[in-house]
Amino acid sequence: MTTNPELTAARAAVPQIEAAEKQLQAAKDLLTKAPVGDSPEAAREAVIERAADAFLADGTWPKQVGQDAAKAYAEADAALIERQARQRVITRAEWSLHDALTDHSSAALEYLGKRLEEVLSAARSAFEAIGGARTAEDVIEAGGDAVAAWTRLRELTTDLENLRRAQWVLLAAPRTPGGSASDADTRVHVWKRAAAGHVRGLNRSEAPAFVREAITTGRVTLEFLRWTATQEGAFVPTSDDEVEAEIAMSKPGAYEGEVRDVTPAELPARERRPSKVFSHSVAPHLDASQPTPAKPTPNATVSDPAPSVPHYA
Description:
Residues 254-313 are annotated as: Disordered. The chain is mostly helical. The chain is built from ten helices and no strands. It has one domain. 59% of the residues lie in helices and 0% in strands. The longest helix has 66 residues, at 65-130. The chain is flat and about 125 Å long. It starts with a helix and ends in a 63-residue tail after the last helix.
C-alpha cells in the first residue's frame, strides 16, 4: 500500500480502484492466516529419521512407519496447496488492481486536479496573510495571523509535493504483478526533464532556476509553491497523451527564414580535346591476320626534355 496520502485519496476517489485495492488487501490478509510448515518432503523425511534413530538406539522398529511418513507428507502437501491457493488469489487480485488503474487512472488524476486548485487557493490566501515575510523570523516578528499562515504554508508545501508525486505514479503505466521497473519510469524521467505536467505552455529554458530544480527533483520549496500559486496555467494532466502533446507544443517550430536552393546545378559538358599524336606514334595492331594499319598523322611534337634537377659543372 502507498504511504502518499494524496495518492491514497486519489485512488479512493475512484470506486473501481478502491474496490480493487480493498480486494487485494483482503487477499494479503488471507495469506497471513494460511498454515505454515515444513515441505512435504521434509515432513516425510522427519518421520523416517525418527524411525531410524529409534532402531539404532534400542533395536526396535516403530510400527507403521510407512503410513506415518505418508500421512505426514499428505498433511504437509495439503498445507502447501492451501498456501499456494491463497497466493493465487493475491496474484489475481493484483491483476485486477492493475486493470483498474489502467482503465480509471484518468478519474484519479481529475481528482488530483481539483486538489491542486484547493492547495493553490489556500496557498494564495496564506501568502497574503504573511505579507512580505520571507523567513520564519520575519513571520514571528509580524505575529498574529502570519504565524498560523506560515505553518499552513509548510503543510501546503508537503501537500503539493505529494500531489505531484501521485500525479507521476498515476500517469506512468502500472507495473505488471511481479514485474520490475518498466519503460514507464524512463518516460516519467523524460517528462520531468522537459518540465511538462505542471504549467501549460511552460518553456523550460525560460523558467527560473529554482523552478527547474523543483520540477526535476520533485522537492517543493516555499518559493516554488509561491511561484506555482501565481501561474494561471497550473494543472494536472489526465493522461500521458496530454503530457506528450504539451512537450510537442513546447518544441521549436519549423525554420521560417530564407530558404536556400540546394538543388544540384547542371553544368554544360566540356568540349573534348583531341588526343595528342606524335611522329613516333603508331596505330594499334590488334589483329595480326590483318594488314598493319597506316601510321597516324601527327598533330603534336615532343618538346625538348628538360632535366628535373639542375646540372652543376
